[in-house]
Amino acid sequence: MKIEIYPPLSILEIGQRTNQEDAIAQWENRLFVLCDGMGGHEHGEVASQTVCQAIVNWCNARALEPLSEAQVEDAIYYAYARLDEKDKGELRKMGTTLTLLYIGSTGVLAAHIGDSRIYHIRPKSSHTGEGQGEAVLYQSRDHSLVFDLFQAGEITFEEMATYPQKNIITRAMQPGAENRMRPDIVHITDVQPGDYFYMCSDGMLEQMTNEELVTLLSSDISDEEKRDHLINATTNNQDNHTAWLIHVKDVVKEDGDDKFDNEEPTSRYNAINIIKQRQKEVKESTEYSAINDNHNDSDDVIIVSTPNHEEIPSHRKPLPKFLLMILTLCTLLFIGLCLMFLIRQCRTSKDLQKPTPMLMQRHHQVVERHTDTIKIVSPQQYVDTIKKSGQEKDTVRKTSKDNIIETLDL
User: Is 186 buried (19+), middle (13-18) or exposed (0-12) by CB count in 10 A?
Assistant: First the structure.
């Protein structure tokens, strides 16, 4: 596919800080980078500027379009190496977040580390649906403590905005081999004319919600005016605030585009998918609790159908499928061994009850008992059975080389 964009617009504001720790960069209007130096750490501005410049330098020297996920990761690890060169051995390491957006012939690649965000927004004017939640097609998942708590069900969506430790992030780019955090990368192919890709540091979101952002980008004003509105809306923000506003002008589909998957609707790195799932779980849990409350308050016996495990969330997680398969195979193996043991026992019991016709030919010899003496003869003898006077007598006739026959009474 061929994706054409309008001239990209940037925002780089210092806010109420004394120094600018954010940094932005772009390469050939195809690759855009935004970094937010870690506040409270030494040389946050050095980390953000180093990463931005390193990725652009890597693209100038090595990039082969279209960029693949592996190449994007190579560029990021090249930036890690440049951070190592700037490291002075301080106990508190410098660090930065990272957002990277690449627009190529295979679609759009969105990569991020930390809590700076990437949005894919389809304005209402060009969107067939009515809900604002549907207009935000992609929002990168924050690597932060507060989002981890929300995803785990410890706090609500509304509580995230006021949580005391909302500024703690769980991933960042820092020097040192032990600090190599991998990026979350999502491949987006559902791109239409009129779509926006919005990259921003967390400072841009202090006074603006997703709904307000969608409303602004859906308004019938120019992109420059939209950027001015974003700047005015964040004038009183405490933190540095930085953004890229990228507007898609045209998309031309080509043969072979179908082989590229659109990971946006199902990706576990898409915060929109996670938020919808959590809201669904909370709603179903509330409905189930209401059913139980009504049942407990009633004096009559009410029969309620057993809920489906998929419909009602449970704190007990089901066993993984591979573990269930292993348990099933072990059970079948145990049953098989028991059956084999029983069959062998039955066969042994029957063998003990059977008469042994070759008892006298054990170890290729025949033992002949005559009165008080025992004679050992060869196994070439044959046995004749003679019945006399109602008694059974066995006579063994031995034929030797001298034709001598000896009759022995047993």
Answer: buried
Integer Cα distance of 385 and 344 in angstroms: 35
Cis peptide before 66 (omega within 30 of 0): yes
Calpha distance 101→373 (Å, rounded): 105
Structure tokens at 224: 């420059």
* Average pLDDT rounded to a whole number, residues 40-57: 90
Q: Domain residues of the chain, as ranges?
A: 2-269, 359-397
Q: Are 13 and 232 in contact (CB under 8 A)?
A: no
Q: Angle, to 10 degrees, between the axis of helix 210-218 and the axis of helix 223-233? A: 150
DSSP 354: S
Element (H, E) at 49: helix 44-62
Can you identify the CATH homologous superfamily of domain 2-269? Answer: PPM-type phosphatase domain (3.60.40.10)
**How far apart are the C-alpha atoms of 344 and 351, rounded to whole Å?**
11
User: How far apart are alpha carbons 117 and 35 in whole angstroms?
Assistant: 10
Burial class for 400, CB neighbours closer than 10 Å (0-12, 13-18, 19+)? exposed
The CA distance from 298 to 296, in Å, is 6
Instruction: Give the CB-side neighbour count of residue 382, counting CA atoms within 13 A.
Output: 2
- Per-residue pLDDT of 140-173, as tens digits, reads 999 999 999 999 999 999 999 899 998 899 999 9
Residue range 216-241: average pLDDT?
Answer: 92
